[in-house]
């Protein structure tokens, strides 16, 4: 009777296992290509205080800026490209725009501007783009990708003039932007002074630390991604448990309990204490990679913990997930990844995406 | 005799430094320096792997300062399921993983096959003890970890 009601939209989970010392390990590429990161969490078992190295990195995460009502053509003009985009990694993402309803824009460090626009805006703008991969019979969303570093986009060329004319005069697009810049060398460029004529405010990522006490945790083994009966849990069970630990959900319920029957996957051990450290803001992949390297070296000295985790949540309203892969929001906009780092430099990498996302790389 | 033993150890020391150590000591050294096994590369892709969906919801009253505990909250949802789907619907298993009395917000867990029925019952939930109320669904996801990082909560002034 309810067979049609039992269907849910598809979601994907990719679990990879490798070792950091492996030459072909792609952990760096996965971190680097996930451009727009909202929250990073680190869970360290059997740890009562945040390690000094982590707090140093937390304070060095760098500022980001919120520029209100910025016309999109301002980040496309040649002067800005020469001063900023070509001299480092520049990240910009429209703030407070919903990818499934509003027009969104993003600028990725490869120098590509990605506009995700609705049907009316696409027709008025007059720039070449593609239909959204997740359109059904009626195409409601289009994606326009402009490579700003391409030779055909040099100032004076037809393409450059058309793009500037479309964004400045034909259909002026403006939105609030979150932006951050990671220079590749020495530079004295400042985003706040360049966008001084707009409302540009500097923000610092917020940091919080929480100590969890007496929580059951699953036993896992770096070499056994699928787990081993009676010996270790599999990666999916671990990911669910990590979600419960991060959300402060009780894992000690009886099967006959009225409220909740959720319990920690078996086999499990009880952790006396664990440190959960979270950074929230507009976070750059370069800093996340530094954090990952720091966590790798956490086990250089003997520690009680057998593993630590690094979880990164992407922006739900970003037009891209990894690289230039289109990202959408169906019933949820999850595009997150989680590293589980073991003592012997083995790692698990779990990448989870929702319905309107391609398979993670 | 002691000189003879001394010369044996001296001989072993010379061989060691010359690179040709006796077999028994060589095998001990090999055992001591045996590197731990490292994981080989493996990649698994799961499609619709999660049996459960998780919902972050909040109960909003039109007016009045109404307080209820987690058990009352679950009973309210069960009564809404009963109203919409009958006794079979009321028997739908779901968990209230977390309930905050101050904000009347909760995290629910339900089987993926029952998500639509639960969500529709939450949508049509209209009153509690005569007081008009409604459920706002903040987030729905098949990954519990995703509830800890919802970028739509980012509010910058």
TrEMBL record, chain A:
Highest taxon in the source lineage: Eukaryota
InterPro entries named among the record's database cross-references: RNase_P_Rpp40
Gene Ontology process terms (BP): endonucleolytic cleavage in ITS1 to separate SSU-rRNA from 5.8S rRNA and LSU-rRNA from tricistronic rRNA transcript (SSU-rRNA, 5.8S rRNA, LSU-rRNA); tRNA 5'-leader removal
One GO term describing the cellular component: ribonuclease MRP complex
Coiled coil regions, renumbered to chain: none
PANTHER family: RIBONUCLEASE P PROTEIN SUBUNIT P40
Protein name: Ribonuclease P protein subunit p40
Species per Swiss-Prot/TrEMBL record: Acipenser oxyrinchus oxyrinchus
TrEMBL record, chain B:
The encoding gene: RPP14
Keywords (A to Z) from UniProt: tRNA processing
Protein species of origin: Acipenser oxyrinchus oxyrinchus
Gene Ontology terms describing biological process: tRNA 5'-leader removal
InterPro entries in alphabetical order: Pop5/Rpp14/Rnp2-like (IPR002759), Rnp2-like_sf (IPR038085)
Family indicated by similarity: Belongs to the eukaryotic/archaeal RNase P protein component 2 family.
GO cellular component: a single term: nucleolus
GO molecular function (one): ribonuclease P RNA binding
Cited Pfam families: RNase_P_Rpp14
Superkingdom of source: Eukaryota
Xref: PANTHER family: RIBONUCLEASE P PROTEIN SUBUNIT P14
Protein name, per record: Ribonuclease P protein subunit p14-like isoform X1
Upper taxonomic lineage: Eukaryota, Metazoa, Chordata, Craniata, Vertebrata
Record bears the keyword tRNA processing: yes
